Amino acid sequence: MTLDRWYDALRSHDPRFDGRLFIAVTSTKIYCRPICPAKRPLRKNVRIYASAAAAEAAGFRPCLRCRPEVAPWTSAWNGTSATVSRALRLIGEGALDGGDVESLAQRLGVTSRHIRRLFEEHLGASPIAIAQSRRIHFARTLLTDTSLPITDVAFAAGFSSIRRFNTAMRATYRMAPRDMRRRRSVASDGTIEVRLPYRPPFDFAGLLSFFRPRAIAGVESVGRDEYRRTISLGGVHGVIRVRDDRDALLLSVPRAFTHTLKPIVDRVRRMFDVFADPDTIGEELARDRALRPLVRRWPGVRVPGAWDEVELAVRAIAGQQVSVAAATTLVGRIAARHGMHIDTGDAALTTVFPSAEILRDARIEGMPSSRAETIRRVAGGSLDVKGIGPWTRGYIAMRSGDPDAFPEGDLVLRKALKGISARELLARAEGWRPWRAYASILLWRSA
Description:
With 447 residues, the chain is of the alpha+beta class. It has 20 helices and eleven strands.
């Protein structure tokens, strides 16, 4: 739309624009979310940006009233550039905290010039600016929403030194980090609690209903309204909890994970698909007559992600040609035999899932030897091996965050669409792009 049309649309403070764009005001040098309750600026003073990083790169600072750092993240790039989506995931995991754009581009298999061009096209900012903006915004969230010491906040957000942290925060917010603090009490169990905003509606019950029958014994536990699991990062082991809390997920993390808090948050965001834009996805999928009633029945559908890609791949391989229950049992046996046993104080959570290094040489029993060999090879770092077909590759991609991934030839999907053939299913799914993963989840749930 033109700037005039955006300006007219923003007068309503419509929450559906939240996270999709940011409004900067030249007279105050501040940028806001579309839902900011502040007085509407004059049209001549308004600038529109596609990302918070773009607004900051143009010299605007975040509004302290509407807090752009907690805006739901838009998923627009997912439908436009898979390379940008993968790059954002790597940046979220700290790829630019200690590296450069050249090394990031090498991991993506493209040139640094190409990745910079894609970022400018889709996000209006460079990869470095995006990484810096995310660090700053995450630090701001920790300062206002937790009681972590400021030094811990700096390193948890990915800064390499306190000096760089203070300089970046002052440059962005025009105030010292200590002046951003609010009085926050530590949770009763001594954990760090972080809110992860999402764009409603959010089908949290649907996610739990997917995770529950697939929960790995000793590793995961899914209650009526809460997900828990064991994790191990940086030599620290413990249990995280996720529950719904009014337009945001509430993540509880043991204090021992302070220095790895940012990658934990990024993994949980992907696992619960908080970046999704349910209005856009629902509108597109409702064009299909079979999906229309499902979109209405389960608004805010999300694609369940996974904590770890190796764990996910083991799950997918074990689940080939067997039921969900049988696959869950097999994966539970693998975890019990090869995983690390830890004391969490919870009888339901006693095991950390085995790492790729352990699985590469593991003697895996209870399944055909060829399938066990496939697991060992996948743990070695490649999905391009015998035993990984189109369905398995599509399933792994779906749960790894690709919104257009598709479990090609899936029998349940074919039955849900009145027994169509695999070829007919593939043709039908063309009309669901770029949201085929969400269509698959809806049809699986209906079946």
